[in-house]
């Protein structure tokens, strides 16, 4: 079942478009990671999905119904979707009262409230902390109490904004275990923003990549820092000591972040001279890794910068390319998206 369906969703802050999603569907009872560089729009998207901030434009369907962004309806939707913030705010009272907060707002009687809050604290391993002062907890404990506070409300969807960004290794493992436990309860969907690739691999069934506010597909993994310079006939982006890529976007000279879509990267065996795509510039590289994923082969290639691309199984067989081979790599300038900074 479709949980969220977004069409033409844009968020504009101070005249700047920071989120621009043509179409995105999220399935129910799944777990998604939201990945992308700083400022790519992850928190902005989470705030929209949590019904905390309406988008400037576009349509969002939740569980099949169009969201109309009126306070009365939002109130009900916010019971179904709960966002656990990166820096949760604790009220200056006990842990248990903080966890009970959402239930109190819903008018749940005190005994039932207490039992639900205790059960939620148990799930995050903080049962013994019930009577402690919440604002004196460590970062990791605070994050776990915030998760308990969300869990107590029994939402359909839990959103997390970088749940382990400011916690130690021990709390990271505990929080990941709690998220995995939440997912094992089939009913609850989980969407979390993270900068940690391994965390995404551990926790997410599906991954969404954002770059400059747009969903980029797995190409979001090819995110690199470079410097734009203008030559008489073209603009180039210098990456590392040896690599220069042509960039078609018009940007001022200076530092940029670029994303290279994997479908814009073609890899040829060193011998192949025919049908070279996109560009006359061919980079020399080496194949570091080839992994079979379903009917596709994921290729890691080093051309002085690390790049990931995908071939169909047939293309991979036909090319005869093997791990360790020296190859030539063509990159489509139109597959490069650059943003300043
Ligand atoms: N309320 C706001 N007013 C103006 N600009 C905003 C506002 N909220 C976010 N932005 C801008 O929108 C862009 C996207 O921000 P967002 O916080 O969604 O990115 P992010 O991917 O979550 O980044 P990070 O990984 O650093 O948390 C940024 O350039 C940010 O400065």
Automatic annotation (TrEMBL):
Residue ranges of every copy of the ABC transporter domain listed in the record: 4-237
GO molecular function: ATP binding; ATP hydrolysis activity; transmembrane transporter activity
InterPro entries: AAA+_ATPase, ABC_SmlMolc_Importer, ABC_transporter-like_ATP-bd, Mo/tungstate-bd_C_term_dom, P-loop_NTPase, Transp-assoc_OB_typ2
Gene Ontology cellular component annotations, sorted alphabetically: ATP-binding cassette (ABC) transporter complex
Record keywords, A-Z: ATP-binding, Nucleotide-binding, Transport
Cross-referenced SMART domains: AAA
Pfam families cross-referenced by the UniProt entry: ABC_tran, TOBE_2
Descriptive protein name: Tungstate transport system ATP-binding protein
Organism expressing this protein natively: Desulfofustis glycolicus DSM 9705
């Amino acid at each position: 079942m479709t949980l969220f369906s977004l069409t033409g969703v844009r968020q504009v802050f101070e005249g700047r478009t920071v989120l621009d999603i043509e179409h995105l569907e999220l399935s129910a009872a799944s777990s998604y990671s939201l990945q992308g560089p700083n400022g790519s729009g992850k928190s902005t998207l989470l705030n929209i999905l949590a019904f905390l901030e309406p988008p400037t434009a576009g349509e969002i369907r939740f569980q099949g119904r169009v969201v109309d962004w009126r306070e009365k309806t939002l109130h009900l939707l916010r019971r179904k979707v709960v966002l656990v913030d990166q820096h949760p705010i604790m009220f200056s009272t006990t842990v248990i009262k903080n966890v009970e907060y959402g239930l109190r707002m819903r008018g749940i009687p005190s005994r039932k409230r207490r039992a639900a809050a205790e059960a939620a604290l148990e799930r995050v391993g903080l049962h013994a902390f019930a009577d402690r002062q919440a604002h004196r907890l460590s970062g990791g404990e605070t994050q776990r109490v915030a998760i308990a506070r969300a869990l107590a409300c029994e939402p359909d969807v839990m959103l997390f904004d970088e749940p382990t960004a400011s916690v130690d290794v021990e709390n990271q493992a505990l929080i990941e275990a709690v998220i995995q436990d939440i997912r094992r309860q089939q009913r609850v969907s989980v969407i979390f923003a993270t900068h940690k690739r391994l965390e995404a691999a551990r926790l997410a069934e599906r991954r969404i990549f954002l770059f400059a506010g747009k969903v980029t597909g797995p190409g979001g993994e090819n995110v690199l820092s470079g410097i734009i310079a203008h030559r008489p006939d073209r603009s180039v982006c210098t990456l590392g000591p040896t690599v220069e890529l042509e960039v078609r976007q018009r940007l001022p000279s200076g530092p940029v972040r670029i994303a290279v879509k994997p479908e814009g990267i073609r890899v040829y065996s060193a011998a192949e001279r025919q049908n070279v795509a996109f560009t006359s510039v061919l980079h020399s590289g080496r194949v570091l890794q080839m992994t079979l994923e379903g009917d596709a082969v994921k290729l890691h290639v080093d051309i002085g910068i690390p790049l990931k691309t995908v071939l169909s199984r047939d293309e991979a067989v036909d090319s005869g390319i093997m791990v360790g081979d020296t190859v030539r790599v063509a990159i489509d300038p139109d597959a490069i998206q650059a943003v300043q900074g």
